[in-house]
Amino acid sequence: MTDLEKISFKNKLKTHAASVINERIQAAKLIIDNAQQAANNEEKSSAVDKYETSRAMGHLEKDMHSRQLSENMKELSTLHSINTNKIYTEACAGAYLACNAVSFFFCCRFRQTSCW
């Protein structure tokens, strides 16, 4: 495989990873919206405790998915910052390592590396 083919392949991997993360972002946004609507539509009943518990559960679900959304946004930001147009000779963000049984595409930043 030529260097240009390797770069093209890494760019395809990056694009695919971005689409997977974007799907997770859209799913989290939908769940957050649904949880908010459910909490807003909950009617007070004679069983006030049940009403309050239901609203609290809706808010907890919304908060959990909001945290997941935030993490997905960070992942997407990190992915977009990775340079896949360079061939690396060591494991670092943007590197692709093909082994016998498995291959790795490094999509995260390492604390200490000479790639930067």
Textual characterization of the structure:
This protein has 2 helices and 2 strands. It has 116 residues and is mostly helical. It has a domain at 3-83. The chain has a two-stranded antiparallel sheet with strand order 1-2. Strand 1 (96-98) and strand 2 form a beta hairpin. Helix 1 packs antiparallel against helix 2.
Task: Give a summary of the structure in a few sentences.
By secondary structure, the chain is mainly alpha-helical.
What is the topological layout?
Blueprint: H1 3-41, H2 48-80, E1 96-98, E2 103-105
Helix pairs in contact: 1-2
User: Mean pLDDT, rounded to whole units?
Assistant: 83
Structural class: mainly alpha
Please report the total strand number as a whole number. 2
Q: Major beta sheet, specifics?
A: 2 strands, antiparallel
What helical percentage do the residues reach? 55-70%
Secondary-structure element series: HHEE
Summed up, the helix count is: 2
Order of neighbouring strands in the sheet with most strands: 1-2
Indicate the low-confidence ranges by residue numbers.
none
Choose one word for the global shape: rod-shaped
Spatial extent as radius of gyration: 21 Å
Q: How far apart are the first and last residues' alpha carbons, in Å?
A: 25 Å
β-strand percent reads 5-15%
